[in-house]
Task: inverse folding
């Protein structure tokens, strides 16, 4: 009897364990509406809660950036007990982007999902999800918190958490999404996971027949009788409003343009036109497309035969020599094939190129494209770099090397107060910065720890002692100019104006938390990793486009050090990083 009861208890315990695992590994956990009091008090009905902008305003007393705050755990949960926000939590895993139905045909909506890491999962307090358009000013953020009494186990690392939808994303654009695990200790690097993705094109979302810019003729038929060539193609749907087309044929440096205007009353689905004035004996490559800006072109080939072309007569001697020539040709081809197979480099290339990729390229007819900078700008863009000199001479040197690299290799005119000391002395530092803010096309703020610390202006008795540390009397004016930039960003955002003029950047030794709250509205970059993105922002050049990818060797993360200015920039950043981290290590050792 006791044996049967023991077996029954074991089965019941095993069933509960399996059900618990099924719950953990089941469907994704979606955010829920909760009150801040429930989150702070640890009520059972608020396990995974969305924190809205109204909640942030209620907690902080002012509007934050899209509902996100720099230290959400301390602000919402750590005021009564700060120890619950001081543990390490590693970055989430398996970050995925899912497209969800969106009624607007001109935009996309996504939902982000992820799994928490089991490293530090017992101290996990929530997540912060941010979305930013690459090379643009669009930014969105969502904040999710657990209640303070919740403690997850390692088995919950298989649970999938989801964000709220991110709506209104432009089609055919590239975005970066970052999922951050909370809390975020100050000296911890692996607390977030980023993923770059592209939204769908109009044709992918709505179908080719609904997209004017992406539409192209799919069915093309070429009929030829001597030199008379007739081309028939399918017309665009009436709802797209395309009324004219064009054809372009080229061979041996010659081009032939044909304007096509079908009669809409007679031609509903297909139209035929004549290709005239093509030279005999040439093979032409032709393109046809709608007469619209940036329309997709369909490629086809035309071979113009000669009028007097006749079959070749084969003489007896030629008939005897032909088999011999064929045999020699086969032997030569076999010899060349053996040499190619013996080359390791060519063998590797042969293994890397897949047949389906070759077929895809042949079907698409993608041609090599030369991307040039926009020609509507007479002079290079003017960039003002602002920084704080309170972080030491090595940080200032890194800023100077960055300015030199941008001016030499990124086709940009850089304005830096260190390079214009006479004008700064004549106008005054604050007046000089204000004028440059008005006249510059772009403003780049280099963020570091001192921007968050907000140092006070030195008093008269401290001027002699701090002169070397402040690197001149304009040090505080530079920080004041940065605060002025933050105020302009806030006003521009309130008026729904374009924020692309303003950018922020941090070097590799700085953290995202070094960016002041008022400047988190604008595009931010980590240098030198994001040099291509910075170039894209300054010149308005898309790094990715359908069928093409722009990669500038001397600006890439791997190639910029091949230049003398790039090597000097990397060396200056490394020296500044060592100088910035040394005081922190000393303070930690002193505290121990």
Result:
């Amino acid at each position: 009897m006791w044996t049967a009861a023991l077996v029954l208890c074991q089965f019941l315990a095993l069933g509960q364990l399996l059900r618990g695992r099924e719950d953990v590994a089941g469907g994704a956990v979606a955010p829920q509406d909760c009150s801040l009091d429930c989150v702070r008090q640890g009520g059972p009905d608020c396990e995974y809660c969305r924190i809205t902008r109204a909640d942030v305003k209620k907690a902080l007393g002012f509007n934050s950036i899209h509902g996100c705050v720099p230290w959400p755990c301390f602000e919402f949960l750590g005021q009564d007990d700060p120890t619950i926000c001081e543990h390490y939590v590693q970055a989430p895993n398996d970050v995925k982007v899912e497209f969800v139905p969106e009624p607007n045909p001109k935009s996309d909506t996504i939902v982000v999902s992820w799994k928490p890491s089991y490293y530090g999962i017992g101290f996990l307090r929530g997540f912060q999800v941010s979305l930013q358009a690459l090379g643009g000013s669009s930014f969105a953020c969502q904040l999710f918190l657990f209640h303070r009494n919740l403690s997850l186990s390692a088995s919950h690392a298989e649970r999938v958490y989801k964000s709220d939808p991110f709506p209104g994303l432009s089609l055919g654009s590239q975005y970066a999404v970052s999922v951050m695990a909370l809390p975020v200790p100050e000296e911890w690097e692996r607390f977030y996971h980023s993923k770059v993705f592209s939204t769908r094109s109009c044709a992918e979302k709505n179908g080719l027949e609904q997209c004017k810019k992406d539409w192209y003729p799919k069915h093309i038929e070429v009929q030829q009788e001597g030199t008379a060539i007739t081309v028939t193609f399918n017309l665009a749907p009436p709802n797209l409003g395309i009324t004219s087309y064009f054809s372009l044929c080229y061979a041996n440096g010659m081009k032939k343009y044909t304007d096509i205007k079908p009669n809409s009353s007679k031609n509903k689905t297909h139209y035929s036109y004549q290709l005239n004035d093509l030279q005999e004996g040439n093979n032409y490559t032709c393109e046809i497309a709608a007469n619209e800006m940036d329309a997709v072109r369909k490629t086809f080939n035309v071979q113009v035969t000669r009028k007097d072309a006749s079959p070749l007569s084969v003489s007896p001697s030629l008939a005897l020599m032909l088999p011999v020539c064929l045999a020699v040709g086969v032997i030569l081809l076999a010899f060349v094939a053996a040499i190619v197979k013996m080359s390791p480099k060519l063998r590797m290339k042969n293994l890397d190129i897949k047949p389906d990729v070759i077929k895809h390229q042949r079907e698409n007819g993608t041609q090599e494209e030369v991307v040039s900078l926009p020609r509507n700008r007479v002079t290079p863009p003017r960039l003002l770099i602002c920084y704080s000199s309170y972080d030491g001479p090595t940080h200032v040197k890194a800023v100077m090397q960055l300015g030199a690299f941008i001016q030499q290799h990124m086709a940009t005119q850089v304005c830096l107060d260190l390079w214009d000391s006479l004008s700064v002395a004549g106008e005054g530092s604050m007046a000089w910065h204000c004028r440059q803010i008005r006249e510059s096309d772009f403003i780049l703020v280099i963020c570091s720890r001192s921007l968050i610390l907000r140092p006070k202006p030195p008093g008269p008795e401290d001027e002699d002692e701090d002169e070397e540390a402040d690197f001149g009397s304009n040090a505080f004016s530079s920080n004041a100019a940065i605060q002025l930039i933050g105020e302009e960003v806030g006003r521009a955002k309130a008026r729904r104006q374009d924020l692309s003029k303003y950018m922020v950047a941090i070097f590799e030794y700085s953290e995202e938390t070094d960016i002041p709250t008022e400047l988190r509205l604008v595009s931010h970059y980590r240098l030198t990793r994001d040099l291509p993105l910075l170039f894209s922002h300054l010149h308005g050049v898309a790094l990715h486009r359908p069928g093409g990818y722009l990669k500038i060797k001397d600006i890439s993360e791997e190639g910029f050090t091949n230049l003398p200015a790039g090597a000097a920039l990397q060396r200056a950043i490394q020296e500044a990083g060592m100088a910035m981290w040394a005081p922190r290590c000393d303070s930690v050792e002193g505290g121990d």
Q: What stands out?
A: The chain has a mean pLDDT of 75. The CA atoms of residues 452 and 514 lie 6 Å apart.
